[in-house]
Amino acid sequence: MLNSLSGRFLILTVVFVMLAEILIFVPSIARFREDFLNARLDRSQIASLALLASDEISDDLQKELLQNAGVFNVVLRRNESRQLVLSSPIPEPVTTTFDMRNATAFELIRDAMARLATPEPQVIRVMGEPSRMAGLLIEVTLDTSDLRAAMIDYGLRILLLSAVISAVTALLLFLAVQRFLVKPIKRVVGHMQSYAAAPEDARRVITPSAGVTELREAEETLQLMQTQLTRALKQKERLAQLGGAVAKVSHDLRNILTSAQLFTDRIELSEDPAVKRMAPKLVNSITRAVHLCETTLAYGKAEEPGPRLSRVHLADVISDVIASERLSVEDGQVSFSEDIPASLTIRADAEQLYRVIANLVRNARQAIVSAGQPGEINISATDTDDDWIIQISDTGPGLPEKAREHLFKPFQGGVTKGGTGLGLTIAQELVRGHGGELTLERSDQTGTVFTITLPRGGVE
Predict the structure, then answer these.
(1) How far, CA to CA in Å, does 340 sit from each of 209, 217, 226, 314, 378?
(2) 281 assigned to some structural domain
(3) Which of 66, 143, 146, 329 has the fewest Cβ atoms surrounding its Cβ within 10 A?
(4) How many Cα atoms occupy the beta-carbon half-sphere of 334 within 13 Å?
């Protein structure tokens, strides 16, 4: 209850109302004291006028007048002289004198708080102006016991009234918060929970209906977010289904192409010049198709085996990649160069590293061939205290803008016609499996440069 929104509003309302009542209580109790003392002055004035109206008055009547006025004596100044009109014995000396004629609000509040803080009864002198111009000054002496008791009684009644007002105000605010805030918020939460149970169901998307502007905006934002998420989930579901279908087709197609590859091995043995000339191209085409099927199947598994790290002579891996790629180009079309220190040994999975570099070199070779201009592919490597750095650069036409935007996204970052874009995606995953990073340094009309960074140290 106390941790809820309405519960905290209830507590804050009570606290603030009581604080406001306290701020009101202080001047109210000061005003009550002022009225109490002025009332004593008025009653004393009436008693003194009754005495002046008669020629002679008994001691008992004088005592009764003083008791009714609530004072010990009365001094009235009508002309320039002061006259003790009524008097009685004073039990103790006068401690303080208060002049009610020119008292400021601060002085009244200060004196009232001091009276409440002083429990011992005292005798005080109070001066004021007579009512109806019945003289110049009236002065009385009285005991503070009745004054303090009356102030305490008045203060308790004020505090009780404040408590009732606080309770009623807090209850009204509690009901208002429940109606206008808590209930709409619970409705939004209920919609969110319902949507979370089945986000693909468009019927569970919230329909904005709140009357409060801020809640209405929150509901509209939630509706937009839920609509976009539902569409994205449906798209991902379709892509997942498409990926499953592609994996099945690639699996069967790989088997068919593998059989065709066996037949092409026999075709290469033919003595027909035309067959000898066309057979290598047919072998290369079938090999690429088989590789594409295997790549698609590997990506469809959504995981790559962890690298088996060992010491690898990088020059040997680069030589194998270049030797393989040279078989796919005609003389003078693409030239290969390497700048690899013969003694450079790195810690990596040899097979996975070969796949990464082969993917990058193959992409560079295809880009140069598609441009129709001779080009060069260079592979270089260096090492620092922290990393091994391998760079694959080419003098091709550079990557298109769309390919750079979706460079490492499967089925979106393809560069060559008919490409899937899986090569770079898989290469990046393999490099990250080594704890490294594959980055595109630059790509423009002068060529493209990829950098592979592999850390020398292990993870603690």
Answers:
(1) 68, 61, 53, 7, 10
(2) no
(3) 146
(4) 27
The first and second tokens of residue 80, run together, are: 């320039």
* C-alpha distances in Å from residue 191, one per residue of 37, 39, 54, 206: 66, 67, 89, 6
CA 364 to chain centre: 45
Three-state secondary structure readout of 94-119: EEEEEECCCCCHHHHHHHHHHHHCCC
131-161 burial, b if ≥16 CB within 10 A, otherwise e?
Answer: eeeebeebbbbbbbeebbeebeebbeebeee
Mean pLDDT throughout 9-37?
83
3-state DSSP of 124-181: EEEEECCHHHCCCEEEEEEECHHHHHHHHHHHHHHHHHHHHHHHHHHHHHHHHHHHHH
Q: What is the CA radius of gyration of the chain?
A: 50
| Residue of 146, 212, 204 lying closest to 184 (CA atoms) | 212
pLDDT, one tens digit per residue, over 320-338 is 888 888 877 777 788 999 9
Q: Which of 34, 27, 41, 16 is nearest to 155 (CA)?
A: 27
- Whether 43 has a pLDDT exceeding 90, the answer reads no
CATH at 443 = 3.30.565.10
Please report the pLDDT score of residue 254 as a whole number. 63
Following DSSP, what letter does each residue of 293-325 receive, concatenated? Answer: HHHHHHHHTT--PPP--EEEEHHHHHHHHHHHH
Give the count of beta carbons closer than 10 Å to the beta carbon of residue 190. 11
Asked if the model's pLDDT at residue 59 lies above 50, the reply is yes
Question: Is residue 84 in some structural domain?
Answer: yes
Please give the structure tokens belonging to residue 238.
Answer: 């379709």
Q: Is 398 left (phi over 0), alpha (psi -120 to 50) or beta?
A: left
Domain that holds residue 394: 308-455
- Total structural domains in the chain? 2
